[in-house]
Amino acid sequence: MSLTAERKDSFFSKQEKIQWIGYSEQTEEELGGLSIENDSFQVHPVFIPEQVNEDYYEGFCNNLIWPLCHYFPYLARFEDHYFEAYKTANKLFFDKVDQVIQPGDTIWVQDYQLMLLPEMIRQKYPDNKIGFFFHIPFPSYELFRMLPVIWRKAIVDGILGADVVGFHTNDYVENFLKAARLVSGYGNKLHYVHMGNRIVKIDSFPISIDYEKFNGSYDDPEVAEVRDQSRASLMEKIIFSVDRLDYSKGIRHRLHGFTKFLQDYPQWHGKVSFVMVVVPSRDTIEQYQFMKMEIDQTVGRINAAYGDIYWQPIIYQYRSMSYPELVGMYTASDVALITPLRDGMNLVCKEFVASRKDSQGVLILSEMAGAAQELGEALIINPFDINGIAQAIQEAFEMPAQEQTKRMDAMRERIRDYDVFAWTNDFFTQMMMLEQEYERLKQV
Ligand code: ADQ
């Protein structure tokens, strides 16, 4: 990552209309040729036949790449038909790019669902600038090598069709460079990979959020109402967490940590409310259904064991939240408890920090989230260490207001300076300046 003042100028404000290509949940017939367009975007839907999509999205993406990249190899399923569907779906995206692309266009491909697409575009359009961003952790080679050789090679070569390849952290960059070397024999110099007549830059771009939006929402009347009501109706101390239902998010470990806290610090009984919101996700997959059942049971057990008729330690919601509710809870809480077992970045912690215009509140953050590398002022915990979670909650509850402000302000400044717009500009600037930058480095 590198950032200069001029990189913070809005990149998109200088550009022509953005052509957005994405998967459509509706069929072509249902959409009926309806075109989605406004002043800045035009959306081009990609239609994937149902069976292909099941093997592609639920299969290759969610049953193989997701668990492997989040260090759950025992959940990964290696099916030939998954990979066939993955190739087919990437080709359907390519066909849409092929219809829309204009000479001189820059194409930015997002995430692990489309790892073969950069190379497909490169082969037909050698001169267009292509970027690729990977939103989840790129795993250590020992996990990546579990993929069959042909699949690994297709993935590495597919991604390297881009000019600039971005990851959230330097660790993921190093993991990818090692995979590129061991799978396809591509060496690198200062993170530039040589691909015959062209170079590819591999770098870290820690994704961020719209800082001003979250910061500015503090005084929004709807947000203030949620905050006031929560503070009035919940206990003296409020802990908050919100995530998609996913085994990578460490929800069960969080519950065990909270139970340990209740065991070890009984002085807080009757004085703490843990508001835990889980947003439904991928609940057609068996593992997710099982996990949901386990969470429901664990919450029930904790509330039954520790609560009484006046106090429920955990307030658990399985639903989506509106924006005012989300920011209302971020700003009402004393502690945000974020405990993923693995997370590419984790935006919830950045949203919490950006929302805290009052510079109060304590962030407890797992060291396994990419965000931990930027937010060192949080109380950093290991999500597998249940005692550590319990102690961090106690430390957060006892942290003086002044100390909270000091930590919060340092994190807020960092997120404000590299927000999602700076992230975009940084990525595009590196794409545009790729060759000059490489020549300059060669002289040094
Ligand atoms: P996700 O795994 O989806 O993203 P995350 O980065 O935390 O995880 O983003 C979740 C987003 O959904 C946040 O903006 C949050 O506010 C919102 N959200 C979560 N629960 C919600 C609820 N109940 N109601 C409403 N909104 C809710 C993937 C990777 C991450 C990476 C991002 C971006 O897994 O590691 O940070 O992409 O690159």
Automatic annotation (TrEMBL):
It comes from Dyadobacter frigoris. GO terms for biological process: trehalose biosynthetic process. In the C-terminal section; belongs to the trehalose phosphatase family. The chain holds residues 1 to 444 of 699 of the full protein. GO terms for cellular component: cytosol. This is Bifunctional alpha,alpha-trehalose-phosphate synthase (UDP-forming)/trehalose-phosphatase. GO terms for molecular function: alpha,alpha-trehalose-phosphate synthase (UDP-forming) activity; trehalose-phosphatase activity. It comes from the Bacteria.
